[in-house]
Amino acid sequence: MRICLVLPIFLTAVSPLHAQEISVPQNSISKDETDFQLLAGVEHVEGDVGEGLDYKTSFATTGVAMTSGRFSASASIAYISSTAPQEVIINQGGLFGTPLLASSGSQTGEVKREGIGDLSLQAAYQLPVSGVDASIGASVKLPTASQQKGLGTGKVDYGVSGQLSKKLGAVVPFIGAGYTIIGEPDNFATRNILSGSAGSHVLLGKSSALTAAYAYEQSASTSIGDRQSLNMGFGTNLTRSVRLGVDGAIGLSEAAPDTRVGLKLRVGL
Predict the structure, then answer these.
(1) I want to staple 59 with a disulfide (CB 3.0 to 4.6 A). Which of 78, 151, 224, 258 is the partner?
(2) DSSP-assigned states of every residue in 8-35
(3) Is residue 224 part of a domain?
(4) Are 190 and 180 in contact (CB under 8 A)?
(5) Is 97 helix (H, G, I), strand (E, B) or coil?
């Protein structure tokens, strides 16, 4: 199996993500090789969306991924456990994984919610260009989460993204951008989302990497400010077919989650 260094820098998502995944580019790609992997992860996010509107949300995610030549695809779904104000929707789909303010009402009581989240489908293609590693991607969030519980919007989201990187010895700087079309929930005003990131991987040997990145993401609601965060991560191969990743983020803007920590596992089949 080829080594694939995958570290999420967003909670969000073209994800979980909620998160968008950043892959250290491959030096060579076999057109005939097809790999399948099982995905698993846990993530915890804490923050607030205004005075007295604190939230704590945990995700337990499972999924499958496939890589064939320049093409890759994945499908994942999360179980969500959250304590948040009544007027907040917890949505881990698309590129926004922090709460989306659902109304301008005066309710402030916190409620505990649990249940299945939205199904996330992603695909990416590494472009055959010389000099840099370039990829484009697309994602779809299907509304499998309960809208009544406030675990999702009940609508489909669509996203597109792109990334450029270049390997300079043991350092791999990268930039990325994304755009998500938000399915507007009934009676709620939302807007589409622009997002971007810039950072670098530092390769540690043949199978490990450190990642540091700055991430910016527009809010899906005009009631909440845009999000900026500093993200750190580490990934390594435990065996030839098992890869472990740990990551975290610190919010740099008022509307960003205060903290995020996550653990990811990818097992080759």
Answers:
(1) 78
(2) E--SS--------EEEPPPS---SS-EE
(3) yes
(4) no
(5) coil
Instruction: Provide the number of structural domains found in the chain.
Output: 1
Cβ atoms within 10 A of the Cβ of 78, count? 29
Residue 80 region by backbone torsions, left for phi larger than 0, else alpha for psi between -120 and 50, else beta: beta
Instruction: Please state the pTM of the whole predicted model.
Output: 0.84
pLDDT in tens, 80-103: 998 887 777 766 533 334 455 554
Is 1 a domain residue?
A: no
How many other C-beta atoms can be found within 10 angstroms of the C-beta atom of residue 245?
Answer: 21
Q: Which one, of 67, 108, 103, 98, lies nearest residue 188 by Cα?
A: 103
Query: Do the domain assignments include residue 231?
Result: yes
Q: By residue range, what is the domain housing residue 187?
A: 6-268
Q: Provide the β-strand partners of residue 126.
A: 135
Burial of 240 (0-12, 13-18, 19+ CB in 10 A): exposed
